[in-house]
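hi support,

uploading two proteins for the ticket. first:
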Amino acid sequence: MNKLVIPQDTLTEHKKEWFEKINRKLDIGLRTGYLNGLKCSRKYEKYILSEIKKNLENILIGEPCLLDDIRNKIEPFRKNLPKRSKLYDNILPHIFNYSSFSKDGSDLNNPDRKLKWGAYKYIQSLGIRSCPYCNRQFTFSITVSRLKKDGKTLTLKTIKPELDHFFPKSKYPYLAISLYNLIPSDEVLFSGTPAEYDSLKINDIK
């Protein structure tokens, strides 16, 4: 596996876009005991949210070894959550909104509009020409467009590689938009059930 190198400007942009909005949500949850209309005031729910808040910058832009350390701090307390807790199923996916990140990028209806920070710009910033896992298929983004009668360009479709989660977002939702956990990859290689990476080493990413 090729190591993932993320430019400093990309890390800065990601933190700028996500840190404050996530920090505000965490503050609300810790202060009120509710997030996304769901209770999160139980002892271990508050502990996990506090740990996430304390480590938020590293969660967003920290290297894989830091993500692994954070995961190892938080996960032992997960088993103490009551069965009725919605922290992992609903609250954390709402806070670390991968769907929003993955959809942000080129505006298909307005190609002249400045691109928002999201998956499209992230992949562009990496300048990767092949899949870090298999080193074969190209992973650069392609924009398909046509010229309209009025001379303006209409973007029809943006094709970009899959972003694979080294630490599965279904299992660790607080790592869903961690940059070093987002690996541009071959869609064919990682189609279907998300892969488990027990055989890969953290140092393979960086």
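and the second one:
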Amino acid sequence: MTATVFNGTEPTEIYTLMCRAGMNKEYYGVKLARSQLVSSWMDILIAIGATGSGLSALTIWNTEWGKPVWTTLWAVLSLVAAVLALAKPIVQFNKRIERFSRLFAGHSDIYTSLLVLSSRIKRKGTITDEMSSTFETAEIRFMELSKEDDPSPSRRLLDRCQQTICSRHPAEKAWYPSTDTAATTSSPAAISAQPEIYCPVDAIKS
């Protein structure tokens, strides 16, 4: 394992990609959870509409005031269930859930890999050939996943994910080579705060 001679941009690229992957992980995690929740409720409502005859046998619906309530409720449930049953294949929630799951898992892997890598860089005070190779592999994987990104991501959700990542990875904790050690990387270098680089603004579109 040999040390690599590098300039100050290499740690910046690693930290930036780590933050972008982390923000994408948060973003698609929320999108996945929301889609799964909506899909589950659609299934529940469709199932209720399909089993309405069984619910109508309950004693409460056979009372004098319960019959008109049930008639109205059953009509509404039947209509909602019918609309949802027709809409679900068109909306294709299953495909959306599959895509969000794939993106969430992919960015989670990249983020975890680069999180470990950044910890090793800070601990050793240098970047080896092996570390550079790990970063390049993550970079290629990130570009592959970007082909499936949301064409119009939610700005509000993206801003919220950015705040989460910025609070988790403040700039002062990033390791950067100092001027006198950048050429040789023979000893741990000084930490320099670069918030505009360590915590990038845009994650979905690189």
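thanks. also noticed: Residues 1-6, 56-61, 179-198, 200-206 have pLDDT under 50 and may be disordered.
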